[in-house]
Amino acid sequence: MPSSGWLRRLLLAVTASLPLLAGGGCTITPLTNPSPLTSATQDAPALPPYTFQRMNRQTYPPADWPEPLGADIYLPDTPGRTRRPAALVVHGGGWQNRTPQDMRGIAERLAREGFVVANVQYRFAPKYPFPAQLHDLQQAMAWLHRKADEEDWLIDTDRIVGVGYSSGAHLVSLLALKGAEGALSQPYGGDHARLAAVLAGGTPSDLFKFDDGRLVVEFLGGKRAEVPDQYELASPARHISPDAPPFFLFHGTWDRLVPVDHATDFHALLQQAGIESELYRQPLRGHITSFLTSGRAIGAGIDFLKRQGLTPAVPPE
C-alpha cells in the first residue's frame, strides 16, 4: 500500500498544478494529509453498519496460470443466510502497475454496504499484452461462482457488479460488454463472466481517441495504424449492445490523461442503445484528484446500484 508520505507528495504535486490549469479567476482549496487508507472516500457520508472480515491475497486463477494472482476478499457480516451481491473491484495504473491497495477504501465501503468484495490483481503489460488482463478477470469471475455456495460467501451470482477506476474501469467495462460472449469470451469467458452492473470512474472508453503513447501501444502491441483491430476489440464504447448491463460513470471535468469526452460519449452511446446509464461529473478534478476525492461519486454509484436491486434486500439489525 502507498505510504502516507508517498500520498502526501502526490497530493502536493497535484494541488500545485491546479492553478496552472484553472487560470487566474479560480480559487482552489488544497487537499491536506488524507489517511492513506481512506483517501478515496474522504468526502464520503457516514457508512452503513455492516462489519466485515478481510482475507488478503487469496489466489484465484488455476495452478497452471502464468502468474499466481491474488484477490483481497471482504466478507460482510450480513444477518441470516441470505445470499449477498458481490463486487469485482479492479485497480488502475495504465495496465502496467499499481496494486489492489489503491482500491482498499472503495472495497471497504462496498463491504459495509453488504457486498462480498474481490479486490483483484491482474497481469501487466507489456509483458502480458491485451487480452491477458481480461482473461484474468474472467478467471476471477469463475472463481467467485465456485465460491458462491460456501458458508461464509453466499454470493448471489446474478448480482455481481464490476467496479474500477482508470484502466481498471476500462477492464470491467469491457468485461461487462464482451466478456461473456463474442470474440473476447473465448477461451475463458461465458455465462459466469456476466456482470449485473458497472460502476466505473475515469474510464478510457475508446482507445482510438488516444495518441500513440507508450501505455496504450504497449498494452495493445502496436500503434493505431499497425493494429487497428486490437484497438477496436479493446474499446468498450465500440461494443455496446441492447443487452448490456446498467452503467454508472464518474469522471473529472479537468481530466487531461483520460479526457472527459470518454465518459460523455460513452454515456450517450449507452443511452442511445437503451441501456440505463448515469454520468456523475466531478467539477474541477483531474484524473488523480477525481480518484482521491471520489467519495461522493462512489456514494452516488451505490445509490444507482440500489435502484437496480443490486444491494442486500435484508437490512442490518
TrEMBL record:
InterPro entries: AB_hydrolase_fold (IPR029058), BD-FAE-like_dom (IPR049492), GDXG_lipolytic_enzyme (IPR050300)
Pfam family, one: BD-FAE
Transmembrane segments: none
Molecular function terms, GO-annotated: hydrolase activity
Signal peptide extent: 1-22
Keywords, comma-separated and alphabetical: Hydrolase, Signal
UniProt EC number: 3.1.1.83
Enzyme class per UniProt: hydrolase
PANTHER family reported for this sequence: AB HYDROLASE SUPERFAMILY PROTEIN C4A8.06C, ALPHA_BETA HYDROLASE
UniProt-recorded name of the protein: Monoterpene epsilon-lactone hydrolase
Organism encoding this protein: Halomonas chromatireducens
